[in-house]
UniProtKB/TrEMBL annotation:
<dbReference type="GO" id="GO:0005886">
    <property type="term" value="C:plasma membrane"/>
</dbReference>
<keyword id="KW-1003">Cell membrane</keyword>
<comment type="similarity">
    <text>Belongs to the ABC-2 integral membrane protein family.</text>
</comment>
<feature type="transmembrane region" description="Helical">
    <location>
        <begin position="76"/>
        <end position="97"/>
    </location>
</feature>
<dbReference type="GO" id="GO:0140359">
    <property type="term" value="F:ABC-type transporter activity"/>
</dbReference>
<keyword id="KW-1133">Transmembrane helix</keyword>
<feature type="transmembrane region" description="Helical">
    <location>
        <begin position="284"/>
        <end position="303"/>
    </location>
</feature>
<keyword id="KW-0472">Membrane</keyword>
<dbReference type="InterPro" id="IPR051784">
    <property type="entry name" value="Nod_factor_ABC_transporter"/>
</dbReference>
<feature type="region of interest" description="Disordered">
    <location>
        <begin position="1"/>
        <end position="50"/>
    </location>
</feature>
<feature type="transmembrane region" description="Helical">
    <location>
        <begin position="196"/>
        <end position="218"/>
    </location>
</feature>
<keyword id="KW-0812">Transmembrane</keyword>
<keyword id="KW-0813">Transport</keyword>
<protein>
    <recommendedName>
        <fullName>Transport permease protein</fullName>
    </recommendedName>
</protein>
<feature type="transmembrane region" description="Helical">
    <location>
        <begin position="169"/>
        <end position="190"/>
    </location>
</feature>
<feature type="compositionally biased region" description="Polar residues">
    <location>
        <begin position="21"/>
        <end position="33"/>
    </location>
</feature>
<dbReference type="InterPro" id="IPR013525">
    <property type="entry name" value="ABC2_TM"/>
</dbReference>
Length: 310
């Protein structure tokens, strides 16, 4: 009788195979595996303990490493991207004879004067081309369905945009240093600290351009022709009106006026000042303002468009 009293009210024992969890441990179901969404819930709980800045930096690094590994697995594209600016410099540089006080070995000036003026413009150009094509990779992921899987993760939306833009910017650092080092024997003066500051400024500007490119890709969706049509229609006028390849002083007055409303103009002038060995100048300050405004506007538009696409 006592034995019956001690067992009264207790749940009957259920025979379980070794390694299986009870109903109370799992909640619903009798399998030992995790519940659907349990890993995502664990990830979200781990994110709660991190500050907003720490989570943003961690998520940005995760996106950047994922994207850059894809680039490193294609060495041909990487090598070509490093050689392309040198080919462009060698072919276009001699055409600047007399345009900026002398060409590359041409009459009327020195090679050093041309290189000191032209090299920063080339670095800005490859930065603009690289970051403005960030959306093309996003278009491919949208067509394959991998982008939807990225959105299903607890990654910060701004970190997705910044990580992608930094992936496009990373080769620029190597390209810029390679161009500068190759031009040193021809009279180019290299200022290491000023060059690092110039590349950092381009990184800030590139994040904004990359975010705008992603926003354009999200708006175009599967219409790849629309993305490239808008991108090319905006890219080349901005490039020409910035005085990147040729000095604007040689153009008409309306072109010089239009260039004042082009943020890329202030970026090019700031890069030429920095690569020329100047830190403290209003030209550099205006370049910082242009980069910061472009970055802020790009992230605002990009994040807003990303949230609408979810």
């Amino acid at each position: 009788m006592d034995e019956q009293d001690t067992t009264r009210g207790a749940e009957p024992a259920v025979a379980r195979a070794p390694g299986t969890a009870s109903l109370t441990n799992v909640g619903i179901g009798t399998t030992s595996g995790p519940r659907p969404g349990a890993r995502q819930a664990t990830d979200r709980r781990s994110d709660v303990g991190r500050s907003g800045t720490a989570k943003f930096l961690g998520d940005t690094w995760a996106v950047f490493t994922r994207e850059i590994l894809l680039v490193l697995r294609d060495p041909f594209t990487l090598i070509f991207s490093l050689l392309q600016p040198l080919i462009f410099l060698g072919l276009f540089g001699p055409l600047l004879t007399g345009a900026v006080g002398g060409g590359m070995g041409g009459p009327g000036g020195t090679t050093a004067a041309t290189l000191q003026w032209f090299v920063p413009g080339v670095i800005v150009m490859i930065s603009l081309f690289g970051t403005s094509m960030t959306g093309s990779n996003l278009l491919y992921e949208m067509m394959t369905g991998s982008y939807e899987r990225v959105l299903a993760t607890p990654l910060d939306r701004s970190a997705i945009l910044v990580g992608r833009a930094l992936k496009e910017f990373a080769p620029l650092v190597v390209q810029g240093l390679l161009i500068a080092l190759v031009c040193i024997p021809f009279g180019f003066t290299f200022y290491p600290l000023h060059a690092i500051a110039g590349l950092a400024l381009l990184g800030l500007f590139g994040v904004g351009v990359g975010a705008l490119s992603c926003a354009l890709a999200l708006a175009a969706k599967n219409r790849e022709w629309l993305f490239w049509g808008v991108q090319q229609s905006l890219l080349f006028p901005l490039l020409i009106l910035s005085g990147m390849m040729l000095p604007l002083e040689a153009g008409p007055s309306w072109m010089q006026t239009a260039a004042k409303f082009n943020p890329l103009t202030y970026m090019v002038d700031a890069e030429r000042a920095l690569f020329g060995g100047t830190f403290a100048s209003t030209t550099v300050l205006w370049g910082v303002v242009a980069a910061a405004v472009t970055c802020a506007v790009g992230l605002f538009v990009g994040i807003r468009r990303t949230r609408k696409s979810v």
